[in-house]
Amino acid sequence: MYTGKGKVVELILRDGLRHARLTCSENLIPSPGQYLLASDDSDSPLPVPIFYTDSAPQGFIATSPVPDSWNPGREITLRGPLGRGFGLPSSARRVGLASLDGSPSRLHGLIRPALKQNAAVALISDWRLDNLPDDVEVQPLSALFEIIQWADYVAFDAARQNLSELRERLFNGKQAKFPFEAQILVRTPVPCGGFAECGVCAVTVKSGWQMACKEGPVFDWIELR
Prior knowledge:
six-stranded mixed β-sheet, six-stranded antiparallel beta barrel, mainly beta, single chain, 38% strand, 10% helix
């Protein structure tokens, strides 16, 4: 983990949301699924968790939500990368990316690596989507059950309170063949970034519970209760 300065270079409207292109040192660039805690000199009492969505010269593009106080030229303090990110298997040839309840921008960082290893990619979301590579197939959430039968790796994005709904969407009383490997980014507040072990971000797993700020926010599907 590192602490350093970054700068907002550009604000970008993508998928109907505000993103920010940041410059920072290479050791502060998170992998897909990891996060940074970012703060500026505004009146906000807590740092903001930001996620990688795409590469950019001398930094990366951070996905929404971007604080209103961030404008081009704004200097910010970054701490991280924090937590556990996605682990795209090098053997994956059919990759599903599924966002249950919002923008799939936290999954976008997996698209280029998947295409680079010649995988077919299906993005499952009901969100408005912009500027996707032509090789990416887009499907609505209603196709989720079919996609998990096709894929050999699936990455999910869902809020913690909606995990039960995701399980119901996946199986719906049917005996589904689950993909070879599946992971899920569980969205939950991570105010302390693992420093205080406050338990606000606790996620229930088979062994009891784990803190998303450190053991997550990406979990193997089989870990979750």
